[in-house]
Amino acid sequence: MPSMPSGAASWYWDKVMNMQPVYIVRSAATPVAENYHSSLRDLAAAAFHAALTGLPAAFDPQRIDMLYVASAMNSMLQRQTELGALLATTFGLVGIPALTVEASGASGGVALHQARLAIASGAADLVAVVGVEKVTDRLDADIEAARATSIDSEFEAELGLTLTSQWALLMRRYMHEYGYAADAFAPFPINAHANAASNAGALYRFGINAEKYRKATQIASPLNMLDTSTAADGAAVVLLASEPMARELGAAQIRLAGGAIATDALPLATRRDLLWLAAAERSSRAAMQQAQVRPADVHVLDVTDPHGIVAAMALEACGFVERGTAPRHAADGGITPQGSTPLATAGGYKARGDVGGASGVYQIVELVRQLQGTAGAAQVANARVALAQCLGGVASTAVTHILIRE
Amino acid sequence: MDLAKRWRQKPAYYRLEGQRHRTSGEVRFPPQPPRVGESGEEWEAYPLRGTGEIYSFAGVRTAAPEYAAQTPYLVALVRLDEGLLVSAQLTDCDEAELQIGQRVEMVTRRMSDTGVDGLLVYAYKFRPVLE
Question: What top-level class would CATH report for the domain B3-128?
């Protein structure tokens, strides 16, 4: 088994090890799109109603105890705070405790983690998690500025660095240290696009190939357009329940068996080892330890993959492949639905579309489909254990969850 | 306009002033408040020499609004001769001629113009050392 994460917070892991079981009882998401007709609350409400569909007719939605909302860019792009109160009221959940969780791109995973703790502690029996991002009301420069608030505002963003360029810096260094050309990362977006073709909710449902990757326009060299995700609108909802509540709803099949948040230095330059996503390692180790699984036990996974380099570094940090080998693993077919570490089975950030702080909730919706065997052409055979990991900023926050079908 | 935000960082922005630990000699940038177990007196202001080599570099083609008019431009992680890394823009160079390991030096440049009622923001960039 992986060892217990060390440091001052180890008491915390001892406690979460003893939590009550938590189940994912419903999940749903809107298609990811440039959705000019829908407002933020339209999107959130559509996902919420879709999530309630299929519950027993006698179920009273007022039994939802709490609402956690995840959004990374909303306060900047929509100039709206207090989404907890806004959406609880929009949904008709009058007066319930509701709040927004923000940890940049990791917001969805953090909200899910908080919801899980609320149930595991006994404070709640049924909690809704909403991930929502409405970006297309604004122009690209504003979106880039909003994304750049997840890097150091005084010594990175202020000087002209962007989140995309930070990953580009890591990609070039990775290429230099491990001897790869830029197109060694092509298998990641190629796999994402191939899988998105069977996801009706994906932004880009067309295939790409190595030739197109090589010819693509540079976005933040060495990152090109076909290796860079597109921000788009979307909302996803997951309902978590205690075991008694899940049994009452006839939905005690998919257990949220492990989950952990970890952090790393926000300013990239101050990290000791830039090519190692330490927060991703810490959170995945702790989550897998709680769930009593090892990397080899995971059948399907979803990670933050706006660029191939991010997926590559996450695979290495989570212990799926050796350091410096992820591009070779991908080139050998290891990340396809038939490989040992199927990635982006619904299209990932690149082809499903990058929904910012909602991504961590989308990942759960997509992995639940895999565990239920309803993922279409991108179905991983006999998937029973899934890992979801979302990152905020340049992996300064990482959240990992383990889902097990019982 | 963030007037005080930029004014407060003048030593770091204008002369790459970091901190040095009075006993261990460790050098760090940017300047930080004391961490757990440290006191503010343990660290003294320490201007860095501003020379080093490129650890990595990247092109920026989509930027935040205050930099949008300057795209494309280059950014880098620079390994300073004191041993630490710093993030900055590169200037006075072509991307095609850059290499990891190349020697660079710090220069003070105008970064952005925050508008008619705002201020001109100056800070450090790095450029290749002239041979």
Answer: mainly beta
